[in-house]
Amino acid sequence: MASGKMSKEEMKTEPAEVEYQQFWKGLQQLGLNAYEARTYLVLLGHSRFKALELAPRARVPRQKIYEVLDSLVERGFARVVQDRTKLFSAVEPNLAIPSWLARKRQIIEHELAGQSRSANNLMEDLNGLYSEGKGGRGTLDFLRIVAEPSQTAAEYRRMLGEVKTEYLEFSRPPYAVDPLDEKLVRKARAHGVTCRLLIETGTLDLPHRQRLSEYAQAGVEIRQAPSLPMKLALFDGQQGLIALLDPVVSIPAWTSLVFDHAGFAEAMHHLFEDRWQRAAEFGDQ
After folding, report:
1. Is the predicted pLDDT of residue 9 greater than 50, yes or no?
2. What secondary structure does DSSP assign to 63-132, as a single string?
């Protein structure tokens, strides 16, 4: 038969304690710290307290109790009811909580407005930095490795479409873009660009020779050599690409280096001139 006395386990979970924990956590969710929440709950159950009497009941260190009470008064949860000997009492929850939420909303809105102003200024500054960065050059932007033939072709067409004064090329298969099929070469020549093609002799069949003759009639200078060390295209003595045959794989594969560097272009120009001077005129072989 059950006795009339409550067990220790039942006393630990009695409604008053459970409610106290819920209220304490709820006040902290509103923004009060643990000391402030406990102090306010103690004040609610009594009309008034001296600070040092309140400290042990609220389990707040004596050296912290005045700071905690001042904060509660400042936030609208407590009031001073006697000035001579300071006594503190709670402000009614239906007044304290809505007032505190309204003040908190104002504080947050003020902070957000300030952050918004700062963010707008920061965005303007960072956009300027972003634009400068996009317009500038990175440490290796003047050199790029391209292994995909379609990307190589796109880079070749881009530079050929932008060329202003001079276009030079070592031409040998396999082609990402066959210069003999490239309308941009004719267009560049029509705009007064000096165009010189050095062709590997062994790659020339009858259709290629016929098209080369048409290029020559359009003013493209053409010579031929028994072999060429690489594929090379130079544009305006500044940018271009070289393509090197992979010596490891059994199926021919080219890796291209796209560059925009005057010194490197000058070195490649000397290589082209050396091979050009030793090459035969088109049609002599």
Report:
1. no
2. HHHHHHHHHHHHHTSEEEEETTTTEEEEPPHHHHHHHHHHHHHHHHHHHHHHHHHHHHHHHHHHHHHHHH
Q: Residues 189, 284, 230, 246: is their CA dihedral positive or negative?
A: positive
CB 152 within 8 A of CB 243: yes
Q: How far apart are CA 4 and CA 83, in angstroms?
A: 48
Per the CB < 8 A criterion, the answer to whether 68 and 75 are in contact is: no
Residues 285 and 176 sit within 8 Å (Cβ to Cβ): no
pLDDT at 182: 67
All structural domains of the chain: 12-96 (1.10.10.10), 143-281 (3.30.870.10)
CA 146/CA 246 separation, integer angstroms? 13
User: Side chain identity at 36, as an amino acid letter?
Assistant: E
**pLDDT tens, residue by residue, 29-88:** 888 898 888 888 888 877 788 888 888 888 999 888 889 888 888 888 888 887 677 888
CA distances from 285 to 66, 114, 201, 212, 277 (A): 105, 79, 8, 14, 16
Residue whose entry in the numeric block shows the structure tokens 């021919």: 252
